[in-house]
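Researcher: Here's my situation. A collaborator sent me these components and asked whether they could plausibly form a single complex. I don't have experimental data yet, so a predicted model of the whole assembly would be a useful starting point for our discussion.
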Amino acid sequence: MRVVHYVNQFFAGLGSEEAAETPPTRIEGAVGPGRGLESAFADGDIVATLSCGDDYFGEHEQEALARLVELLEPEGADVLVCGPAFGSGRYGYACAQFSRIASERLGIPTLAAMHDENPGVAAAEGRVLIVPTAVNVAGMRDALPGMARLAEALVSGRELGPPAEEGYLPRGFRRNAFAEKPGAERAIDLLLGKLAGETSSEVASGFDRVQPPAPVEDLGDALVALVTEAGCVPQGNPDRLPSIRAQGWLRYPLLDEQRLAPERYESVHGGFDVSLANEDPNRLVPLDTVRELERAGRIGRVHDAFYTTTGNGTPVAAATRFGREIAGELRDAGVQAVLLSGT
Amino acid sequence: MLAKEIERAGIPTAFVTALPTIATMIGANRIVRGPAITHPFGLEEAQRRRIVERALEMLETPVEAPTVWEVPA
């Protein structure tokens, strides 16, 4: 079995966030987690590893995908395996999109692996087989055997069983099957299983939609707040905002500051290379520009505090809570419009 | 998620991000494409001004569903 493995720049050993702009590249054989994956195959070789920097992929998605497909095609792969990306959003997104496009364009079986809350899962729209993993790299050892098994099942050409049996995330469709037992008996079995905690009948909700509020009538008279998910905090991170998986958000006063001075602010976000942001934090929270526009009368007034958190690896429920709490404060303060930055 | 919750509270929010596809998928409504993940508001002041102006325009514009605006170079 000829396997091609996709990993991001970090797992390919090309570098950390400073290498996140690396364009698609090919490496001979298995690297990093690919070695463990290869040893989990009964009979399979990773003939090549393809890699792309997470930022490059996010910012040049179409070019990256086209190039990755071009690199994949001559390998004559029986299967493409992407990840595991765990809870990393950019990496998971790349894994899901590459899996999807590779199978559409080249007709080869593909699979990806990531945490079930990774945005890659939603991006896959049920068109990619995704092996669920833990939220961080500590789950590597548990993830690889399941990925290997599913890859082998795909290459064997046999029909896949249901998600729970084969170890992939439900893709959102149902398939009819004949059952041995009548419905009443199965309903009772399911109920007993649920009571015993052996099965769950709840389906996680997808992302809901919010009705967009009406636009601001007169920005020239409006109170505007700055909010960021980019981990911008005062130098030294006095309140210890975590660089990943934040448990909360912070509010810092802006008072008379005209810009976020690099000697006073920094970013502690763990999901991107913060060196450019730290040279000039206004690249994340544009206080300098917003103050100019305030003076020019384009906006009424800048709210006297900005709100910050790190939006990486944050579970959906937690991020939703942060949003609600911040929204509550902004509403109470009479804020009429928000400029939010994310990475 | 922040964009959505703040808009749910009735405050129009322009979300500037270099990953508009993900923002759209999650369901943010007013999205402006920033030039890069490491500097969504650009490197130089002139560029930042264009991005902020674009975001402000979006705050003044009715949208019905997740919408992505580009910033003229």
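Model: Some features of this prediction you could bring to your collaborator: Chain B touches chain A through 51 residues (CB under 8 Å). Chain B has a mean pLDDT of 94.
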